[in-house]
Specification:
719 residues; alpha+beta; three-stranded antiparallel beta sheet; 27 helices; 11% strand
């Protein structure tokens, strides 16, 4: 029994994750329990990883990578290398001596690598690089025979072969070769020549049944109208059977009313469906006048090509049922031969044209076979490219799929789209988003402050979501503009379009109630100011309207209740005085009770602060414990196997605020600084209140301790 491979794990984000430390870990990755994998699926688009490499791994081409595909890629790469440690080294080059030919494979990648280097005139090179393979791929695509099994008209050197290839493309369609040019593959060519041969055999078969080209034309003319003529004579027989059936067998008045309401042409299907001529008992079929206009041309051809030469009457303008039956008898053998004509887009070609096409068959098939002989080189070249890409990228993919080492070690995870700058802060946890509404429905479970942004760069547009994991969120608003830098360093104009609010730290949650209280006061003051302004405007309006009656005296009853020279009611003044007195008494009583607390004053202050900020801090603490990366990536198409926590320490590294360099020189005098106004007096008043509270605390302590000291002194011997 083979001994199980020993993996090493590290802990990050509250999850035990495997550490890729050697090539043996990559070779045995299939032995790792998938319950220990961080991710179980990831998209091949919208992440910062080489698409070509992901397409090589995505064998079912569903644009998603899953563990079986990744395990298969690791095993395939290890099977083609002498040592799996090559996969740990990275880089886009492989030494020829490191390549190995797995058992059961006829062609070695080392031979193909030497062949590529020889074509590039690098015979002495011992290392092949991805650039070498891509150059060879470009050369192969430009060659006459590139191994894709598709030949274009330009591939042929003879004009007859070129014409045949064009005919195949016109009748059976074309396909694009690896250079993007339209060409013909083996399947289309075989179908074309099979139909050409069938048509040639049909023409060379019992064609003597027609006798001449005139008989063939007559049979074709009869066949073109046979069903409609049979329909006409059958209707006439029914009308002869019962005269009352004639009206029902002809087109009704309602049918013509329906036609009259449409835009008509002679090839209209509803016109063509009408009988060839009016139905009557024993009536002959007219050939010129009084016929259905949709069939007039076909009937004229019938008269010219069949009736005149076969019945011997060129001037006949109608035909009865017996003459029609005689006409069908004469063309019956020719029609039987026509019925055997293969249905093919080549049916319009005559014998010489078909023979010319069939003569080019050997040359066309030879070109296709010669192109296909280059296919093995293409397959080996593709495998060589795949191995080089896996050597360069496989370890990085494992550290972003099996574990999230690249993310937790701050090395730049493949799902991080770039960096967003806003409010003197940079956000590194940014993810591309296809559908903002759908993404936000799931990403909200991450308990993280998320800002969805629309990014613009020229004509390009994309959406991202940025996680704000540190700092305040007071000024994060929809519509704010910012700048986004993608992983390639390109700058994008970004605008916040949607915001999911969540706390970023316990400290931010501590000040949140006070900030909300201040905002509430500001809103109330603004409302009262607006009401006062409206009242003032109304008073001015009343004053303006009363200027015309200024000479009228105020009545004694109205003036008696006012102070001299004032419009304020005496009762109002008294009520205000009583209210101010009550408020003052309450404040004095509260201050007295507060002073009476003595040494408990700091505890009381702490209790007040806890009562105000405690709930907000508790909620923030609970949410920060639940903050995770999983829902954000799940909403982007990943399948995350764990919660992947984003704690406060990690969050601080993902959203970094601006800091002045340590050795920078700071000029602190601001000539445009705001005047402090009442700030200093208010600060002095608060300081005085604190000093008074401290003195009261000390006096209270002295009042308690002094009697105890005196009592202790009196109790001593000799006193």
């Amino acid at each position: 029994m083979r001994e199980a491979h020993e993996f090493e794990f590290f802990r990050a984000g509250g999850v035990e994750q495997v550490l890729i430390r050697s090539g043996a870990d990559i070779a045995h990755i299939g032995e790792l329990d998938q319950k220990l994998w961080v991710a179980l699926a990831c998209p091949t688009r919208g992440i910062e990883f080489d698409r070509r490499t992901l397409d090589f791994i995505d064998t079912d081409h569903d644009l998603r990578i899953r563990p079986p595909e990744l395990i298969a890629a690791c095993e395939w790469a290890c099977a083609h290398l002498h040592s799996p440690e090559e996969l740990m080294e990275g880089g886009d080059g492989i030494a020829l001596s490191a390549l190995r030919q797995p058992a059961g494979e006829d062609d070695a990648l080392a031979d193909e690598a030497r062949y590529v280097l020889r074509l590039l005139q690098k015979e002495d090179a011992s290392v092949i690089t991805l650039d070498d393979v891509m150059r060879r791929t470009g050369m192969l695509a430009a060659m006459r025979f590139n191994g894709d099994g598709i030949v274009t008209p330009e591939t042929a050197t003879e004009e007859s072969v070129r014409c045949t290839l064009r005919s195949i493309a016109q009748t059976h369609g074309s396909t694009r070769d690896c250079n993007g040019r339209d060409g013909v593959d083996k399947e289309r060519a075989q179908a074309f020549f099979a139909e050409a041969e069938a048509m040639r055999l049909w023409q060379a078969g019992d064609g003597t049944a027609c006798g001449s080209a005139a008989m063939l034309e007559a049979a074709e003319a009869v066949g073109a109208v046979r069903e409609k003529v049979e329909d006409f004579f059958t209707r006439c027989r029914l009308a002869a059977y019962d005269s009352q059936a004639a009206a029902a067998l002809n087109a009704s008045h309602e049918t013509f009313l329906a036609l009259g309401g449409q835009e008509l042409t002679l090839d209209h299907e509803r016109i063509a469906a009408l009988p060839l001529a009016p139905i009557g008992p024993g009536r002959p079929l007219p050939l010129r006048a009084g016929v259905n206009p949709a069939w007039s041309e076909a009937l004229a051809t019938l008269q010219l090509k069949a009736i005149a030469p076969l019945l011997g009457d060129a001037s006949v303008d109608q035909i009865d049922e017996s003459a029609w039956n005689e006409l069908q008898r004469r063309v019956a053998s020719c029609q039987a031969w026509l019925a055997q004509k293969p249905a093919s887009p080549l049916s319009h070609l005559d014998g010489p044209a078909l023979s010319a096409l069939l003569e080019a068959q050997g040359a066309v098939m030879a070109l296709i076979e010669e192109d296909e002989r280059a296919a093995p080189h293409n397959a080996r070249l593709r495998d060589l490219e795949k191995l080089l890409r896996l050597k360069r990228d496989l370890r990085r993919l494992l550290e972003n799929f099996v574990s999230f080492k690249a993310f937790y070690h701050r090395e730049g995870a493949i799902f991080q789209a770039g960096t967003l700058y806003l409010d003197s802060r940079s956000c590194d946890l940014t993810v591309r988003v296809d559908d903002v509404k759908q993404h936000a429905a799931l990403a909200g479970l991450a308990k993280t402050c998320l800002a969805y942004c629309e990014c613009r760069r020229g004509n390009e547009r994309m959406h991202i979501v940025a996680a704000f994991t540190a700092g305040d969120v007071d000024f994060l608003l929809s519509g704010r503009n910012c700048v986004f830098y993608d992983r390639q360093g390109h700058d994008w104009d970004a605008t916040i379009t949607r915001l999911i609010e969540n706390p970023t730290s316990v400290t931010q949650a501590f000040f949140s109630p006070y900030k909300k209280f201040v905002r509430l006061i500001e809103e109330q003051v603004a409302k009262r100011a607006a009401v006062s302004e409206a009242g003032a405007q109304g008073a001015l309006s009343s004053l303006a309207s009363s200027l015309g009656t200024a000479d009228k005296a105020i009545t004694p009853a109205a003036a008696a209740g006012r102070l001299p020279g004032s419009r304020i009611d005496v009762g109002t003044v008294a009520a205000i005085g009583v209210a101010m007195g009550s408020i003052s008494a309450v404040l004095v009583a509260l201050f007295s009770k507060f002073i009476d607390l003595g040494q408990w004053i700091p505890i009381a202050l702490g209790g007040i602060v806890i009562a105000i900020s405690g709930p907000s801090m508790l909620i923030a603490w609970l949410k920060l414990r639940q903050r995770s990366l999983g829902p954000i990536l799940d909403a982007s198409g990943w399948a995350i196997n764990g919660r992947m926590k984003v704690n406060v320490r990690l969050g601080a590294s993902l959203s970094r605020t601006a800091h002045i360099p340590r050795h920078a020189i700071r000029l602190l005098r601001d000539p445009f600084a705001e005047r402090r106004g009442m700030a200093r007096p208010l600060a002095a008043a608060l300081t005085l209140a604190a000093v008074v509270a401290a003195l009261a605390w000390q006096l209270d302590l002295l009042d308690r301790e002094l009697p105890r000291a005196l009592q202790h002194t009196r109790s001593m011997p000799g006193n």
